[in-house]
Write a structure and sequence with these properties.
This protein has 325 residues and is of the alpha+beta class. The chain has two domains: 179 residues, 2-Layer Sandwich (Beta-Lactamase), CATH 3.30.450; 80 residues. Helices cover 68% and strands 12% of the residues. The protein has seven helices and five strands, in the order αααββαβββααα. The chain has a five-stranded antiparallel beta sheet, sandwiched between helices.
């Protein structure tokens, strides 16, 4: 609570803190939104491109597998089912090449899987890499189906991937499900690099913007603080206080206006002080001029007051003969 109160006080007193904090919050929100949108669009583009190329490749590979199965099954002799399955998987493995473009799972459909029919896979890929829902959908349709999954290997490895499946019909046996699993680890690595790059770029932009705002705020508020401090000293009676003026921008005009105001206030206060001195001198002169006659009058009044009995007696003696007559 104490730190919150201190932060609140600093927030209310510091304009630069409010500007920098507001800039940080707004820029963080905007950069985050832009970064998420950018990463999502780039990721979607990469995955869509990979999905398109994988489906195209899977379509060709599955058609080739179907031709291999038909050719092997109708060839000379009576090849066993294991030979047919192995031939198809080998042909697809050769097509995938050394780069491991995809892995193969050749599985018997659910209705015939209980017969112990041979199933094959490449590169130790596990059967649970394909979910049961996709397995069921592939058996029920003749179309190419795909979904994103996690490719699991028997040695414990797992990578994100795209699985494409289609049914393969084998004479006198039934329907097998052929799944091609395309690893997406390189695409995920690319997306991770892009995500890290966007994150680093966003952090760099935010801190660069904060440094720029701090510099601009300091450049703008420093003259304002000087003007405020000068105004405070002017209020305390330091009438000679002035603000240094540099440049011709708005801040320079503000400093010039303040200096003009301070000079005008100083001049008016000087005139008031001069008038006050003149008033005091006038009152002093008038008091001095009036003091002498007033003193004389007062002295005469005092003399008359002290001699009042004498004047009263003379008045009585002057009236006696008149009464006697």
């Amino acid at each position: 609570m104490k730190y919150f109160y201190q932060f609140k006080q600093a927030w209310n007193k510091s304009l630069s803190l409010r500007i920098i904090a507001t800039t940080f919050m707004v820029s963080t929100i905007l950069v985050t939104i832009i970064g998420i949108v950018l990463v999502n669009r780039v990721s979607s583009g990469i995955l869509t491109s990979k999905e398109s190329s994988s489906i195209t490749e899977a379509s060709s590979a599955i058609n080739e597998a179907q031709r291999v199965v038909v050719a092997t099954d109708t060839g000379a002799g009576a090849p066993t089912l294991s030979v047919v399955v192995d031939t198809a998987v080998t042909a697809l493995a050769v097509r995938a090449g050394q780069s491991g473009l995809y892995d193969v799972l050749f599985l018997a459909s659910p209705e015939i899987s209980k017969q112990g029919l041979p199933e094959r896979g490449t590169n130790l890929v596990a059967e649970n890499s394909v979910n049961d829902e996709l397995k069921s959908r592939v058996v029920l349709t003749d179309k190419l189906l795909w979904s994103y999954t996690k490719i699991i290997y028997l040695d414990g490895r797992s990578v994100p991937g795209l699985v494409v499946g289609a049914p393969i019909k084998i004479n006198n046996v039934g329907t097998y499900s052929l799944f091609l699993l395309f690893p997406l680890d390189k695409e995920e690595e690319t997306i991770g690099i892009i995500r890290s790059s966007v994150l680093a770029t966003g952090i760099f932009l935010i801190f660069g913007l904060l440094i720029l705002v701090w510099y601009l705020t300091r450049s703008v508020l420093a003259p304002v603080r000087k003007t405020a401090n000068a105004a405070e000293r002017l209020r305390m009676g330091l009438l000679n206080e002035r603000v240094p003026v540099s440049g011709e921008d708005d801040l320079a005009k503000l400093a010039g206006s303040f200096n003009s105001m301070a000079a005008s206030i100083q001049q008016q206060i000087g005139q008031l002080e001069k008038m006050s001195r003149m008033q005091k001198r006038f009152v002093s002169d008038v008091s001095h001029e009036l003091r002498t006659p007033l003193t004389t009058v007062r002295m005469a009044a005092d003399v008359l007051y002290e001699s009042r009995d004498q004047y009263t007696g003379n008045s009585k003696s002057c009236r006696t003969p008149k009464h006697a007559n």
